[in-house]
Structures are given as C-alpha cells and as structure tokens.
Amino acid sequence: MECLVAVLLLSVLLLCSAEEFASFSNIRLPSSPADGLCAHLIQPSGYPCSEHTAETKDGYLLGLQRVSSSRSGDLRGQLGPPVLLLHGLMMSGDAWFLDSPNQSLGFILADHGFDVWAGNVRGTRWSHGHVSLTVKNKEFWDWSWQELALYDLEGMARYIYNITNSKIFVVGHSQGTIMSLAAFTQPHIVSMIEAAALLSPISFLDHISAPFVLRLVKMHIDEVFLTMGIHELNFKSDWGTRIMDMVCDEHVNCNDLLTSITGKNCCFNNSRIDFYLEYEPHPTSSKNLNHLFQMIRKGTFKMYDYGILKNLKHYGRLQPPDFDVGNIPDSLPLWMAYGGNDALADVTDVRHTLKELKCKPELLYLENYGHIDFLLSVRSKEDIYDNMIRFFKSFKKYSTSSY
C-alpha cells in the first residue's frame, strides 16, 4: 500500500493543479453502523463487533471498533484486558483485519480473550469528522502526527479507559509507534497505559534507506503540496484508483516498488494486493507528510517546525521542542519488534531510540523482515504475535486464568 501512495504523490504533482486535486476529495464517512468497519470486514468473519466514537480535545470524532472472540458470542460477557491498535500512515483500523483470522492480529488477540479496540486517526474513512468542521475546510487538515499523538491517541485511550475502567495495552505499527513514543512522554497519557508493543518502532528517521522515499524528500514534494494549497492527500477516489491500477498493472511491478519503499519483505503475500486496495490507502494531511519529511531531513524527533517566526508564536521559542523519549518513564513496560530489511524503521535508528530510553524494552529482532512484514506477513502469528501475546500475558493480573 505505501508503495502505491508514493507513486500517487508523484503522479499528483505531475498531472494535477491544486484546483483539480481539490475536486478529487471523496471521503465517505460512515453514516450508520451498517456502513462501518464492523459490518464491512469484521462481522463477516464471524466476530462480534460494535462501533464507537471518541471525541478529541480539539473536536475530532474518531471511530473505534470493539471486537471480541468469535467463541464468546457477544460483547456483553466477561472480556480480558483492553488493547488499542494504532495503524500506520495512510492506513486505518482495517489494517489489523485484512488477512485470515489466524493471520490478522486483531482477530488473534480477540481469540486470546483480549478486549480489542481498533483505532482510526482523524481524516480516515472509519473516523467520523469534527464537531464543527467538514473535510472540505482546510482547517480540518491542519494537523500532523503531533496532533495524532497528543490528541487522537489520548482521546481514544481515555474513551476506552472510561468504558472498561482498566489500563490499556497499546499496539502500534509504523506511524502508530511514532504516535505512541511521542504520547508516552506525557504523564497524563501514560497513566492510562499498562504496557505497549511497537512493531517497526520509529522515533528517528535519519538513517532511512528507502530509495524512492529519499527521492521524494530530495524533491521537497511535501513542501510543493503545501505551497500549492493542497491540504488533504486523498487517493481513495475513482481517479486515484485508476492511477493505481495503471501504475501496477501496466508500468511497474508493485512488489519491486514496495521493496524500494519499505525494504525487502520476506513474507508479504503480494497476490492479495487487490483485496488490500479495497481498503487502502486512507487520507492523510499534507502537513503530516511534511512533518515526517522534516524528521528525515533533520534527523530529529521534534514537534512540527513552522519556521522561526511561527515557532515563536506556537512554542515561544525559535526551534520546535523535542519529543524526548528519555522522558518515557522506566515504569512503562515496552516490547519492540524490528527487522533487518526494514528500510523505514532502520536498525541504526531503532538502536538510537533504545539508547535514549530509560527503560530496557523486551526486543524481538527478525533479520529477514521488512516494514510491511510486521503487519501482513503470512508467518506473523508464529514469528511475532505469539511472542507479543506472551509479553502481555506476563502481567500477573492479566494471567491466562482470568480469561
């Protein structure tokens, strides 16, 4: 999916004016439970699922899907500890349910008795808008992963915490780990978290090795979008679908292109890409892409850089503040899985993160895994998820005897 996103970014720059691009905005927000992720993807696999909405402090309405085991029959019985799943860039909560029940983490956690909550960040298909803005307002798209960490993660966690009266396990992949590591520097968020499992953990990106991404960074395509007045990056439209079909079917082997974006994936099932594209990609903001590219250019894990004058206005200082992962309390248990072929969460950058942390996370290193393998590997259960679930079940109050 992420390879296709990169191609589309370049295609938009070459083919479209800002006015033309604006006409492609085509988000279809769920209007009823029958139009939500539960009905589309989760319930057809036989798993009880209910739709929820969490409101952030800045007014965004985020979709959450609560999932239980197919063996439990409903969501009213005794459930195990809550787990919040946080997806990657231009993905959404559906990412955790795209493969078969014995391969998809959302289903696997439910079958182990966990109270599974699939999170969806602002602007994605399964989230629900804003209390006063619409997706046609440029202000709706005025955010980056900074707001996803400080507002979306906090809002979803608080909603789950209030419903379950229990601390939460967090699982993040890619952008979901950026959100998590930034959010965990905030004591009021950490107070709701029991432990976290991070797949392809990212806080620093200065050793990223993906050739196609580096080419886009060098082109400053993110800054071009902002200069053109393009605030929303939304490719889930008839136009975007035609571009993806054209690129992959006629011009480029998308598996090879995926390698140039994410690193060589050992276990990704390329034959299912047409099915994945029924759900991916989801919209994001140009500002979010810009923030990620700032990280690559500067090798920092900081808040969004508005430039000197606007930084003074926003932060009261010339440079944006750091998200100092050294401020994550050593009392917060962390589990991390990373791969030797990951061109986005590079091993050198992961080790940089580990050096900055006060705590010593439990680590799983898979030499032949690329970035997408940690989400969609056909061997993910045996290679990754069994280890993660053992980590979660090591907490005494969540022992297997309780669920």
UniProtKB/TrEMBL annotation:
One of its GO terms (biological process) is lipid catabolic process. The active site is at residues 174, 342, 371. InterPro entries: AB_hydrolase_fold, AB_hydrolase_lipase, Lipase_euk. Residues 39-98 form the Partial AB-hydrolase lipase domain. The keyword Hydrolase applies. Residues 1-18 form the signal peptide. Gene3D superfamilies: alpha/beta hydrolase. Belongs to the AB hydrolase superfamily. Lipase family. This is Lipase.
